[in-house]
Amino acid sequence: MHKLRKRQKKTIKFIFNLDFDLSAFYDEVKKDRTMYHITQQLYGLKNPTTPSAFEALVDSIVEQQISIKVAHTIEERLVKKLGELLALEGEAYFAYPTPENIASVSLEEIRNCGMSQRKAEYIQGAAKLIVNGKLDLEQLKLNRSPEEIIATLDEIKGIGIWTAELTMLRGMQKLDALPADDLGIRRVISRYYCGGKSIKTTEAREIAKLWGRWKGLAAFYLIIAEVKDITV
To answer: Which residues lie below 8 Å from residue 152, measured CB to CB, with a gap of 6+?
Structure first.
């Protein structure tokens, strides 16, 4: 029981980044007037991390080229259909599907969650690589080289740079990763730095240089700033 609680505590700390010291991030961006103003209004905000890198990878594949609202509906269906059920005090809870869960079902079952044939193939393909010992995402997230992580993920069918960077940011705590191809991220960068005009990926990455090694975390702050309608 003690070991279980210790593991649970470790997982909770990881998900909510409870041990993460934000001071280095704040020191890095304080010369950027816009980001400094936003961090002061969102002081103490930490980005959540998925319990496993596999969960971040699957969610990132699901979210390719569709709205977040639609993607979240599909992700919820996937969890309820393929995740293990825990009934507790009359309530039903579902664990996120493991690679084994996804590798063992038919493509049709995955597609029935609301995604395309190709996305179902990409997700199951990644799951089978893990099950067969050809891919270790938990080991990969220990790699300190963003370029090497991206190169490894990019070799997997259906995963490009955007999906790799989003997976790194969400599930590997690689806060320097910036999925600049993402329309939502480019939108918030433009809102706060370019007057709301349409910008290209290269422009977003150039602006992000202001945030040093905290590009992904800074982008998260911009997203929350937009949600809260913070003005600078």
So the answer is: 140
State the DSSP code for 194. Answer: S
109 part of a folded domain: yes
Q: Which domain holds residue 123?
A: 53-171
How many Å apart are CA 220 and CA 175, to the nearest integer? 10
Burial of 90 (0-12, 13-18, 19+ CB in 10 A): exposed
In the predicted structure, residue 109 carries a pLDDT above the cut 90: yes
- Which token pair is 20? 């993460």
The pTM of the full predicted model, rounded to 2 decimals, is 0.92
What's the CA gap between 171 and 52, in Å, rounded? 6
How far apart (Å, rounded) are the C-alpha atoms in residues 214 and 208?
A: 9
CATH of the domain at 205: 1.10.1670
- Provide the strand spans (E) within the chain: 85-88, 91-94
Residue range 171-182, pLDDT digits in tens: 999 999 999 999
Would you tell me the crossing angle of helices 215-227 and 183-193 to the nearest 10 degrees?
80
Using CA atoms, how far residue 13 sits from 9, 93, 167, in Å, is 6, 21, 19
Residue 96 maps to which CATH number? Answer: 1.10.340.30
Structure tokens at 205: 């990455």
Q: For residue 69, what are the CA distances in angstroms to 74, 96, 104, 217?
A: 9, 19, 28, 22
